[in-house]
Amino acid sequence: MFIQDLWEFGYDWDDPLTEADIEKWNTIVQEISDFHSQVPRHHGVTCDNAYDLVLCSDASKRVYATAVYILTRHANDSPRPTLLFAKAKLAPPGAITIPRMELLACHMAAKTAKILISQCKIIRRVLDELRADNIATGFYYLNTDNNPADCATRGLTATELQDHLWWTGPSFFATPSSQWPWKSLEPSVSSLPGAEAEELKAVTTSTNTISEPYVSFVPFTRTNSYIKLIRVTAYVLKFLARVRHRVETRCHREHQDVQSILGTMDITPVVTPDDFTTAESLLIREHYREGQQQLDSPSMKKFRTTCDKDGNIRVDRRMSNAQTDNSTNPILILSDHPLCYMLIIDRSYARTVSLAGPPRVGEVVLVRQDAHRSTWPLALILELNASSDGNVRSAKIRTAKKKILKRSINHLVPLEIVADDDTIPERSRALCSKGCPF
Fold first, then answer.
1. Which residues contact 434 (CB under 8 A, 6 or more apart)?
2. Any idea what DSSP says for residue 369?
3. In this protein, which residues make up the domain named DUF5641 (predicted)?
4. Which residue, 171, 186, 150, is CA-closest to 71?
5. How many Cα atoms occupy the beta-carbon half-sphere of 106 within 13 Å?
6. What average pLDDT does the chain have?
7. What ranges make up the beta strands (E) of 238-319?
8. For burial by CB atoms within 10 Å, which of 10, 24, 84, 207 has the most?
9. 230, 307 in Cβ contact below 8 A?
10. Is the pLDDT of residue 183 over 90?
11. pTM for the predicted model, two decimal places
């Protein structure tokens, strides 16, 4: 509170303190210098003991605090209370009411209880028993003299703290709980404005159930190859479609759900491009189901999305004059899903290296630049330069303007032009004979 007062008074870092503030500081230092106390570290943790956590909270105009006591109860002995945890916080800046401060104190006590229970490493079986027994918590009133959290909000000198109930809690903690002198305060909203709405909201919240997240039958984490995953999915769907057709043929009945995914599959033994398209649509829809939580997140609300006939979520863009649907309304892929990682690998590495193969002399390539792909210049590979380890990492190229340049292999994007010999491919010769700038 002393530091907070200094901030409110508008002190700069090198401003001297007033005489009144210096006197307050000296008093604080003198009281702390004479303070000595012992806190027990052992709480009698044995198999024969039972334990209770008692949380006390209180608030004043400037501070709210909570104190946690552990009550060790043996079968034949009285409970032994010990301070386990305590915390105090200053009030937020600005005007704030006492009821709000009390609410902040209760909130801090609840958070403290959650942290302590998680740190106690209670086994799952015990937690299940607690849930099965429906153990309830209650709010009780303690007067100022018996509430140890009150001293944290009002402050104590070192001398007063020496033998204070702060360390062990009030004296009645050492007696059975049935003899504790407190008054039950069950929360009620019947007397508050809007009570009916609050009660309805509470009932609605209590009836919500937490469902397990959906796990797809597609093994997205078993491979990093997008093409392999599509191929395997297409073959599995083809197999299931053929098995289904045989069963229905033997039973002399036709399937009615023609619009289902197996109903759209061709039953011929050859896997067609349409089968791969169907498999890709299935993968996208399944990754939506697994990432439903991300779809419902506020970050997705900023996108204007629509769902096409295949179940793909597309993002509306302003490129209305684009030639393809993927440019006008690209398909939304969730960034937190493994499918996104596979697509990045497929687009950035596999398609340019694995499928295209190493560069060769005579190939026509695009020279990658920091501009739109449509503006990348064409070039012809004249020579490949191998490094000391034998790997080709750069090439000598000739652009359409007859410039001879040396570029890294990573900056050369191959076209679908295949060389027929070791020098200039026939396709390149044909292009040159028709007026190609090379």
1. none
2. -
3. 359-415
4. 171
5. 12
6. 74
7. 305-307, 313-315
8. 84
9. no
10. no
11. 0.37
Sheet holding 404-408, edge to edge: 404-408, 392-399, 378-386, 364-367, 412-414
Look up residue 290 and give its two tokens. Answer: 């697994």
Q: Which of 177-181, 282-286, 310-314 has the lowest mean pLDDT?
A: 177-181
55-95 residue pLDDT tens: 888 888 888 889 888 888 777 777 778 888 888 888 877 77
Give the angle 45-51-52 at the CA atoms, nearest 5°.
145
Angle at 414 between CA 357 and CA 426, to 5 degrees: 90
Give the CATH class of 357-433: mainly beta
Are 346 and 326 contacting, i.e. CB atoms less than 8 angstroms apart?
no
Rounded Cα distance between 233 and 227, Å, is 10
Helix (H, G, I), strand (E, B) or coil at 186: coil
Q: Which residues contact residue 167 at a Cβ distance below 8 angstroms, ignoring those fewer than 6 apart?
A: 37, 39, 82, 83
User: What number is the average pLDDT over the span 246-254?
Assistant: 74
- What gap in Å lies between CA 44 and CA 370, rounded to an integer? 69
Query: Which is nearest to 424 in space by CA: 388, 382, 374, 373?
Result: 382
Element (H, E) at 380: strand 378-386
Q: Which residues of 332-357 are buried (b: 16+ CB within 10 A; e: fewer)?
A: bbbeebbbeebeebbeeebeeeeebe
pLDDT computed for residue 398 by the predictor: 93
Token pair in block for residue 247: 């069963």
What is the rounded distance in angstroms from the CA atom of residue 165 to the CA atom of residue 244? 77
- Locate tokens 């901030």: which residue? 7
- Rounded distance between C-alpha atoms, residue 31 and residue 138, angstroms: 38
How far apart are the C-alpha atoms of 75 and 87, rounded to whole Å? Answer: 31
Listed by start position, the domains of the chain span 2-33, 50-206, 222-339, 357-433
Picking from 412, 309, 433, the residue whose alpha carbon sits closest to that of residue 353 is 412
pLDDT in tens, 323-353: 555 567 788 888 888 888 888 877 765 455 5
Q: What does the radius of gyration of the chain's CA atoms come to, in whole angstroms?
A: 37
C-alpha span between 5 and 160 (Å, rounded): 23
Query: Quick one: pLDDT at residue 41?
Result: 67
* Backbone angles phi and psi of 92, in degrees to 5: -60, 155
